[in-house]
Structure formats: C-alpha cells, structure tokens
Design brief:
Alpha-Beta Plaits, two-stranded antiparallel sheet, globular, binds adenosine-5'-triphosphate, binds magnesium ion
Length: 131
C-alpha cells in the first residue's frame, strides 16, 4: 500500500515504477479512502500500542493506493524494497530511506506474512476484483 503521505506527495508513479522494474505483476490496484473500521482491523495487531490512535488517524486521513502484487517471494521482496520501519534505519536505495524521514509517515505498507497478505487483500479488494 502507498500510504496517504506517499499519495499526497505525488510518489505513486515513482513507487509503481519501482514495482515494475523489480518485475512484480500488479494484479490489483486502486486509489481509495480507508474507513476507520477497516483501519482498526488492518492494524489490529497494534491496538494496545501508544501510537495506535495516531496511526489510524493517519491512514484514514487521505487516499491510499492499494496494490496487490504477485511474484517470486513477493512478500519478503516488497518488504526489502520498502526498507526498515524507521526510515533512519532503512538501507540506502529503499523506499523509506529515499522518501521518508519519520516512522509515523513512512510512505508504504507491506504485509508481513502470507496470512496477513490474505487477510489484508480481503480488506481492500472484493472477491473477483483481482486478476
Ligand atoms: P507496515 O505495517 O506499515 O508495513 P511495518 O510492518 O514496517 O510497517 P509495524 O511494526 O507493523 O511496521 O508498524 C506499523 C506502522 O505503525 C509503521 O509502519 C508505522 O507507520 C507505525 N509505527 C510503528 N511503530 C511506531 C512508533 N514507535 N511510533 C509511531 N508510529 C509507529
Ligand atoms: Mg506491519
């Protein structure tokens, strides 16, 4: 997902270009607003964390671009392309190192396992919407 800061800053085409150059297939793509309820479900694992409210406010504060990627080891590979959660720790050349300065607004999200990918794809795409 391209988070609201990435969309607002006009980074969508840059990030989609990186995905294409990497060789992943885009099997779903949409710009959308996330409801509070969907955001709370999406980030449910962080419910008890002190930043949860801020995180939900942020992710619902503007359009995101939801992207369904397919490719060899796409989950780990996309997380590697994003870099560390805190941009200060992200390796040069990663999206977060190149485009972000704070953990709170770090431009992209990636599912962290096949289980979360399946769950999150179900939150953002209707059955039959993915190629
Ligand atoms: P994401 O789930 O967004 O792909 P991630 O898996 O790298 O990122 P998580 O630990 O799942 O990181 O945290 C989810 C998101 O919550 C982070 O991307 C970040 O925007 C926010 N976040 C995490 N830790 C903090 C923190 N200490 N302070 C503020 N925001 C945080
Ligand atoms: Mg995460």
């Amino acid at each position: 997902m391209i988070k609201p800061d990435g969309v607002r800053r006009g980074l969508t085409s840059e990030i989609l270009a990186r995905i294409a150059r990497k060789g992943y297939r885009v099997v779903g793509l949409k710009q959308m607003m996330i409801s509070r309820q969907t955001a709370e479900t999406h980030y449910g694992e962080h419910k008890e964390r002190p930043f949860f409210g801020e995180l939900v406010d942020f992710i619902t504060g503007g359009p995101v671009v939801a992207i369904a990627l397919e490719g060899n080891e796409a989950i780990a590979g996309w997380r590697a392309m994003m870099g560390a959660t805190n941009p200060a720790n992200a390796a040069p050349g990663t999206i977060r190192a190149d485009f972000a300065t704070t953990t709170g607004e770090n431009v992209t999200h990636g599912s962290d396992s096949s289980e979360s990918a399946e769950r999150e794809l179900g939150l953002f795409f209707a059955a039959g919407e993915l190629l």
